[in-house]
From TrEMBL:
It comes from Abditibacterium utsteinense. PANTHER family: PROTEIN O-MANNOSYL-TRANSFERASE TMTC4, PTHR44227. This is Tetratricopeptide repeat-containing protein. Keywords: Repeat, Signal, TPR repeat. The keyword Signal applies.
Amino acid sequence: MKKTFLLLSLALPLVAHAQEAAPVENPTVVAPEVAPVPEVAPAPEVAPVPEVAPVPEVAPVPEVAPAPTTPETGTIPTENAPTSPAQVAPVQVAPTSPVASLDEVARTREATVAYNQGLAALKKSDWDTAAQNFGRAAAFSPGDAGALSFLGYVRLQQKRWDDALNALLAAQDSGKNLDVRAQSQLLNNIGFAHWNKDEFPAAKTAFEAALALDKDYFDARYNLAFAYLSRDQFADALPHLRLLSAQNAKDSAIWDGMAEALQQTGNLSGALGAYKKALAIEPRNSNYRFKFALALVESDRRADAIAQLKQILDTTPNNAPALLQLGDLHLKSNHWGDAATALKRYVALRATDFTGRFNLGVAYDYAAKFDDALAQYAEAEKLRPDDAATKNNVGRIYFKRDRLDEAVTKFNQALKIDPEFYDARINLAIVLAAQKNWDASSAQWQTLAATVEKRRTATTDASLKKSLAARLATAYSGLASNDLAQNKFKAAAADYKRLLVLNPGDLEARSGLGRALYQAKDFVGAEATYREILTRDPKNASAYNDLGVVLEAKKDRKGALDAYSQALQLQPDHGEAQSNVARLKSKATLG
């Protein structure tokens, strides 16, 4: 039996931060400065009067828009707009009130002139002039749903959401006789205004009302689908996105939105297919490709994800999120050099980003470039002084360099920030043991065991219970190691027994128990322990050798010789068994 042996073989954990990179844009709500926006349909059908026929019933044809957001300039309703004043039929004047009639004619003329001037300004995207004239037209003809609709549309273009909503609601009140198409367009614009006022329920109601009138109204369904996406209501968005893709299979934003909804509802294979369709339409869209890469990561297709990220970087070498994600994937693949290369490029672009600095430190750390690692961790500490993981990792390097007092300081700093940071507590216990500060080390193991056991008892999550059981086993193993180092053999045996309750199949722990019992002179218990190991692993040569030592202590020379011989049969070069057999055969005493 070996006189010395390692019972605790723990690598000091290096805690890497979770990936914090996000796509360049939020995949659910496209910001106004990015992506096309719905051109809101003004929905005016009622022309102001007879002098000029502005033909307001033709709504602007909507460009494909990813979400209800700030409107951009779009096609205005000019398809049938007159190029010169139309012939005006004589106005019939009521003989009983000539003054009133003349006044009404004048108001009608003013309203018509203002309306047509508004249309002219609309063609030039002169929103201020258009708003002024449509406002005048509505003032001269208060019940004119057409003027009010156009006024609401222009206010949407100006991002004056309250004014837009007031005009559109007034148009709705005045336009009770509008046809179905015009009413649905008006409701879509009302929903758009509510959306931009962050009034999701009202926006949703308006979009749904528009679709109730016209189930094929693309803009309203588009806006409703992306409104759902922006609120993470992915299951609600999906049926609308599927209908939209049937209406326009060449709209990449629809496929991208569908991909996200499928991914978030657990259909990864469907999501990957949808991302591919979006990229087939827009192969140079780095945002789509980035999200495709993230979905590949989630599908455990790391190599494919790396290929997609490299493709992004081929066309946009300074794409910071792609560099950060690529570095993270190389870290997870244990490619330390590749990780460092990507992350160095990332921190050159974003020098004050904590995650980039930390992960670059991790890459250097694992590559044993400790000076470089410490330099990056130092930058990370400046950016986030209260980050426990950084202090833990610095402590780990100090330990490797035998700077034990400094390592203890760093681990204590980490635990002050996060008392339940298990890795830091494990590391602190190990360093204290390296200093032969057994009581302090054991106190850390006991604290770990108590903390973990309390949490393990409280949780009902099976996966978490399993993870916590592994932590608890580490604590018991650490305690056993300390007890053995102090010749506290009975205490060590008790530690191993607790460990084996958690994991009966841990043969290393069972072997440690056998050794502790042997040292405590409990030869019966030690023999039973080694025989249990051999029942579980009949080809364990070391267990046969250790059993022989126990049997020899029990004065069973023949049994001991048989056990040593069996060890040699299984492993002819087993040094201890060779020595023990030779000694017994020469009738030497056990030393």
